[in-house]
Write a structure and sequence with these properties.
single chain, 188 residues, mainly alpha, two-stranded parallel sheet, two-stranded antiparallel sheet, 45% helix, globular
C-alpha cells in the first residue's frame, strides 16, 4: 500500500518506465502477468535531483510534493541532531495489528470517496490560476539547479486532490485559501 524508493534517480530506464505505469495506472506488468497494485502512497528519496536532458521529466512530474533538504545551518541545531539517540522501535505483525490509529482499507476507501465530495470554490480556483500564470512567467537562470518550473495538467489535478484532502482532514467540506500555502511552497 505504501512504497518508499531510495535513490530513485539512479534507477535505469526500464525501472523508471515501469514506475511510470505503477504510478499512473497502479499496475505492474511482469511478463504476461498484470498485477493490480493497492498503491496509496509513494515516497521517494535521492541525494540528487534528476539530471536535465536524461528523459526523467515525466517521472519527476509525477511527484506532487517535492521537498529539497539542505544541510543543517546552525551549530545549535547540528549539535541537537548529533545528540539524538537512535532508539528504533521494531514492530512485529502483532504490534501493527493492535495499533489504534491504523487506517483500514475500508476506511481508506470511504475517506477517498468523501475527499472527492470536498468543494473547490471559485476563489481557490482563481488563486490557482494566478499561481499557474506566475509560474509560466518565471525566468530561471540556466546555471541554476532547477532549470524550469513546469507543472503539468496531471500534476495540477493531483494538487487539487491534495487540497481536498487537506480540507477533509481538517473536517471541512470546502477547500480554503490556507490549504494552498503548503502546495505553493512545494511547487518551487
Amino acid at each position: 500500500d505504501v512504497v518508499f524508493l531510495d535513490e530513485i534517480w539512479k534507477a535505469g530506464p526500464a525501472i523508471q518506465n515501469t514506475l511510470l505505469t505503477v504510478i499512473n495506472e497502479k499496475i505492474f506488468r511482469n511478463g504476461n502477468r498484470v498485477l493490480q497494485l493497492p498503491l496509496k502512497l509513494l515516497v521517494a528519496a535521492s541525494n540528487e535531483l534528476p539530471a536535465k536532458g536524461e528523459g526523467l521529466e515525466a517521472l519527476w512530474d509525477r511527484f506532487i510534493i517535492r521537498i529539497e533538504s539542505r544541510p543543517i545551518a546552525t551549530e545549535a541545531h547540528f549539535n541537537a541532531m548529533l545528540r539524538l539517540r537512535d532508539d528504533v522501535v521494531e514492530m512485529d505483525s502483532e504490534t501493527e495489528e493492535s495499533l489504534p490509529n491504523a487506517i483500514s482499507a475500508t476506511e481508506y476507501a470511504r475517506w477517498s470517496g468523501e475527499i472527492d465530495k470536498v468543494v473547490l470554490p471559485d476563489d481557490v480556483l482563481q488563486c490557482i490560476h494566478v499561481i499557474r500564470k506566475s509560474l509560466r512567467q518565471v525566468r530561471v537562470d540556466e546555471a541554476a539547479e532547477r532549470r524550469n518550473i513546469y507543472v503539468s495538467d496531471r500534476r495540477w489535478r493531483n494538487i487539487a486532490r491534495l487540497l481536498r484532502t487537506s480540507a477533509f482532514t481538517q473536517d471541512r467540506r470546502q477547500v480554503i485559501l490556507a490549504d494552498l500555502l503548503p502546495v505553493y511552497h512545494c511547487l518551487w
